[in-house]
Amino acid sequence: MAAVTPSTIRQISLGSCTAIIADFAATTDDADTWASGLSNIIFVAATQEDTAGTQAATGCGASWSGGTITFHIGEDNSAVRLLVLTGTAF
Q1: Residue 2 falls within a domain, yes or no?
Q2: What is the pLDDT of residue 89?
Q3: Secondary structure E strands in the chain
Q4: How many distinct structural domains can be found in the chain?
Q5: CA 18, CA 1: separation in Å to the nearest integer?
Q6: In this structure, is residue 38 part of a structural domain?
Q7: CA distance 72 to 64
Q8: Which residues contact 11 (CB under 8 A, 6 or more apart)?
Q9: What pLDDT is recorded for position 90?
Q10: Which CATH number fits the domain that encloses residue 41?
């Protein structure tokens, strides 16, 4: 597990929510974390942006606690695109 930093971040307004799209280099490993500094996170989703070595190694997810996001990746050294929605829950 290591702390990672996105290579690019984009922010989009979605009504009362804000969408943050962050790209992480092909060195992201399972259980790596990003201390995003974001508050009021209501949703996170992650996609693997490169080809996995095997079919069994495909897949990527993420979870959060406070502003820290943890990656759950089927194969280490993967490029990841992360979507984070912040705002007020319904």
Answers
A1: no
A2: 64
A3: 8-14, 17-28, 33-35, 41-48, 60-65, 68-73, 78-86
A4: 1
A5: 28
A6: yes
A7: 11
A8: 18, 19, 20, 21
A9: 61
A10: 2.60.40
Structure tokens belonging to residue 42: 């209501």
Q: What is the pTM of this model?
A: 0.90
Domain that holds residue 33: 8-86
Helix (H, G, I), strand (E, B) or coil at 49: coil
For residue 66, the tally of other CB atoms under 10 A from its CB is 11
In a domain, 82, yes or no: yes
pLDDT values of the chain reduced to their tens digit, one per residue, 90 residues: 799 999 999 999 988 999 999 999 999 999 999 999 999 999 999 999 998 887 778 889 999 999 999 999 999 999 999 999 999 866
Residue 14 maps to a domain? yes
